[in-house]
Design a protein that fits this description.
There is one protein chain. With 287 residues, the chain is of the alpha/beta class. It folds into 2 domains: 14-183, NAD(P)-binding Rossmann-like Domain (Rossmann fold, 3-Layer(aba) Sandwich), CATH 3.40.50; 192-286, ProC C-terminal domain-like (ProC C-terminal domain-like fold). The chain has helices at residues 6-11, 14-23, 39-48, 63-71, 99-102, 122-129, 159-170, 184-192, 194-211, 216-236, 241-248, 254-263, 267-286, and strands spanning 30-35, 54-59, 75-77, 89-92, 112-115, 134-138, 148-155, 173-177. Strands 3-2-1-4-5-6-7-8 form an 8-stranded mixed sheet, sandwiched between helices. The longest helix is centred in the last third of the chain and has 21 residues, at 216-236. It starts with 5 loop residues before the first helix and ends with a helix. It binds 1,4-dihydronicotinamide adenine dinucleotide and (2S)-3,4-dihydro-2H-pyrrole-2-carboxylic acid.
Length: 287
């Protein structure tokens, strides 16, 4: 019996055939539509552009943001009405406050939906885009350099869809899954918002350096590289952060003097707890 199968060939859109030739992974071809190419959407898009097997489409009303998306290889559209209805995955990356207005037209599109919006639950998303596989993902902006952390929660997703989500999150960093959607606000408070806490710590450390007499540029260089180097070590050393902390802390030395201030009253820990709780609570409000 002949093995060639013209109907399958004809059923494939041309880009799929192109992608199949390019990657040799025909089964993993996918069209991804990014709705909202702002801070978070574009951070992910930059990574997705490195995956040669994805057809990337972007909708954003802001011309400058469309231009930068086009510059990394995406097909860009100003309005949903212009977008070809050829989607395997629709990624909603607009603000939670506009989700109710932006999402409903995508109910007419095929494919699954992945939302990165803080606070917006699967039940609400289903009300907006209809019955279909829906995945919530909480990414973070280090995705822009392939160092992101993404946490997924999936309803109605089979292994193929989970694999596509992991492909999209894996190309921009690490991926974890939660089985309880109620934890998504906690995830948002730690890894979604977390980069901002770390950037603020860099600001504080640089400011402290200036107050101790360092030139602003030098103070910022020291603070930035110290946080970057400590973060990389914490990830790669294979030892608990507490062990790495002790390796810096000579008994009776300078670090011990500083940590006594930071830890003695539990002030920093309390502050971080309160900050994370505030972020979690705001996520609940947005929902
Ligand atoms: N910024 C971050 O670090 C993170 C953000 N998120 C989530 O990502 C989502 C987007 O946040 P950001 O990127 O920070 O906001 P942003 O304001 O930078 O991006 C939102 C984009 O949506 C676009 N937009 C507005 N109306 C639209 C429409 N009708 N169609 C298509 N695009 C439209 C805007 O032009 C803008 O570019 C939010 O829901 C947020 O909760 C999640 C994790 C981290
Ligand atoms: O600030 C926010 O609401 C979004 C979600 C996590 C990071 N940025």
């Amino acid at each position: 019996m002949a093995t060639s199968s013209p109907p399958v060939i004809w059923a494939c859109p041309p880009w799929r055939l192109w992608g199949a030739r390019k990657t040799g992974r025909a089964e993993t071809m996918a069209t991804v539509l990014l709705v909202g190419a702002g801070n978070m959407g574009f951070a992910m898009l930059k990574g997705w552009a490195k995956d040669g097997g994805l057809r990337l489409m972007v909708v954003d009303p802001t011309e400058a943001l469309r231009d930068r998306a086009a510059a990394v290889g995406a097909e860009v559209y100003a309005d949903v009405a212009e977008v070809p209805r050829e989607t395997d995955m629709i990624v909603l990356a607009v603000k939670p406050q506009v989700m109710d207005k932006v999402a409903p037209p995508y109910a007419e599109f095929p494919g699954a939906v992945m939302s990165v919006a803080a606070g917006v639950g699967v039940a609400r998303l289903r009300g907006l885009v209809g019955e279909r596989p829906i995945v919530r993902v909480m990414p973070n902006t280090p995705a822009a350099i392939g160092q992101g952390m993404s946490v997924g929660y999936a309803e109605g997703a089979d292994d193929t869809l989970r694999a596509l989500v992991e492909r999209l999150t894996g190309v921009v960093g690490e991926t974890a899954w939660i089985e309880d959607e109620g934890l998504m606000d906690a995830v948002t408070a730690i890894s979604g918002s977390g980069p901002a806490y770390v950037f603020h710590f860099i600001e504080c450390l640089a400011s402290a350096g200036e107050k101790l007499g360092l030139a602003p540029e030098l103070a910022l260089q020291l603070a930035r590289q110290t946080v970057a180097g400590a973060g990389a070590l914490a990830r790669e050393a294979g030892e608990a952060p507490g062990v790495l902390r002790e390796q810096v802390t000579s008994p009776g030395g300078t670090t011990a003097a500083a940590l006594a201030v930071l830890r003695e009253t539990g002030a920093l820990e309390r502050l971080v707890n309160e900050a994370a709780e505030a972020a979690r609570d705001r996520g609940r409000e947005l929902g």
